[in-house]
UniProtKB/TrEMBL annotation:
<dbReference type="Pfam" id="PF02342">
    <property type="entry name" value="TerD"/>
</dbReference>
<dbReference type="Pfam" id="PF10138">
    <property type="entry name" value="vWA-TerF-like"/>
</dbReference>
<dbReference type="InterPro" id="IPR003325">
    <property type="entry name" value="TerD"/>
</dbReference>
<keyword id="KW-0778">Tellurium resistance</keyword>
<dbReference type="InterPro" id="IPR002035">
    <property type="entry name" value="VWF_A"/>
</dbReference>
<dbReference type="InterPro" id="IPR036465">
    <property type="entry name" value="vWFA_dom_sf"/>
</dbReference>
<feature type="domain" description="VWFA">
    <location>
        <begin position="221"/>
        <end position="404"/>
    </location>
</feature>
<protein>
    <submittedName>
        <fullName>Tellurium resistance protein TerF</fullName>
    </submittedName>
</protein>
<comment type="similarity">
    <text>Belongs to the CAPAB/TerDEXZ family.</text>
</comment>
<dbReference type="InterPro" id="IPR051324">
    <property type="entry name" value="Stress/Tellurium_Resist"/>
</dbReference>
<dbReference type="InterPro" id="IPR019303">
    <property type="entry name" value="vWA_TerF_C"/>
</dbReference>
<dbReference type="GO" id="GO:0046690">
    <property type="term" value="P:response to tellurium ion"/>
</dbReference>
Amino acid sequence: MELISGQNISLNGSELVIDMCYQPGVNFAGEVDTSAFLLTNQDKVRSDSDFIFYNQPESTNGAVVYSKTPTGGRYVLSTAKVESTVDKIALTMVVDGSSTVGHLASLSLKVDGQASFNVPLDNRSEKALIVGQIYRHNGAWKFKALGMGFNGGLAALATNYGVDVDDEPAPTPPPILEASKPPAGVSLEKKLQEQAPHLISLAKPVSISLAKHKLEHVKAKVAFVLDASGSMTQQFKQGNVQAVLERITVLATQFDDDGQMEVWGFGERHKKYPDVSLSNIKGYISGIQNSGKRGLFELLPTLGGVNNEPPVMADVIKHFKNSLEPVFVVFITDGGITKARAIKDAIRESANYPIFWKFVGLGGHNYGILEELDDFTDRLLDNTDFFPIDNFKTVSDNVLYDKLLMEFSDWLVDAKRKSIIR
C-alpha cells in the first residue's frame, strides 16, 4: 500500500524488513545517514543504546538490526523482542554535507510486502527528516508515514530524542527565517517579559518546537476546550488545568497576532468564557470557577458534573467553520468518553472546515474513540491527534510542546492541498 504523509497502516508479522532508499539529485553534495531511535511514551530513548546507526548497528537485545546499503539503510525489526518500555521506533535520515533534503531526487521508505512511502521533497530546506514511525496500538504494531522536517545534523536529532552526544559536539544551525521577521523566540520573550514575566521560561521551549515543526511563521487561531466534569476535580485542585492553559496561551500568543485565545468549558452543558491572553492569564481558572454559584459536583458554575462532549464540539465548529485562518483547538479531558458516534460525526463534519483538533488526555483513563483516531478514515482528511499525560508534573515543557504541535504542520499541508485553507 502506498502511503502519504500522516497516513498509517496496521502491520502484520513478527519480523519486519524496512528499507530506506534515496537517490541523489544532480547537484547533491554530501552523504545520507539513516538511523533509528527506540522511544518511550515520552518520545525519549531510555539510554544511548536505543540509538541505532552506523556505529551502533544493533539494539541491546537484537530487536532492531541495521545494515547500511549503497542507497540508504535496512532495518530488520523483531517485534517480539521489543521491550514493553519501548512505545515507538522513529526512522530518520540526515544529510551530512552542504546539501539539504531538497537536493535529493527521491527518498522512500518501504516495509517489505506491506507499505511504502515516497517522501515529498519539493521546496525542502531541512538537513534531516523523521521519515516514519513504527508504534504500538492496542497491542499490535502500526506504521505511520511522516516526512517531518528537522533542522540540524545527526547530533541535533539525537539530542532531541535524549541521546547524550557530548563527546561528539556538533553545531545546530538556526532555523531558516524570513529576513523581514525577527526570530520567534526574541519577539515572544519580549511579549512575555512585558505582560507575563512569570511565564518567561516558556519562550525557549515554544520557539524550539515551532522551529522543529516548521511552524514559526504560521498564523492561526487557537481555542481551548476544557473538561469540567466532576472527575477533573484533582486536576483543578493541583493547578494542572491552570498550568496547561498558561502553556497553550503562550503558544496562542505566537500563533495569533492579537494574542487572544477563545475558551470553552463543558460538563453536561457547555459555556464560552471570556478570551484569555497574557494580560489576564494569571488566576484565570480560579476566576471562572468563582464567577457564580456552583452545585455540589460542579467545577464550573451551571455546567453540571458529567461530561458531554458533542454539544461543545458542535459549538466550536459553528464558531470557526467560516474562519479565514486555520484553527488549532486544544481539547483537554480526563476520559470517560462514551459518545463515540456523536464525536466521530462532529470530527467528520469539522474535517471540511479549517479546524484541527488536538485532544489531550490529562491524568485520566477510558479515552475511548480518542485512542482510535488513527483508525478513523471516514472523513475528508485527518484533522485530529491525541496524546495522554498520566502525570502533568513529570512532563517537561519541551516534550509537551512537541506533542502539542505534532501533526499540525502535516494537516496544514493537506488542508491547503484540498483548498480548505488558503
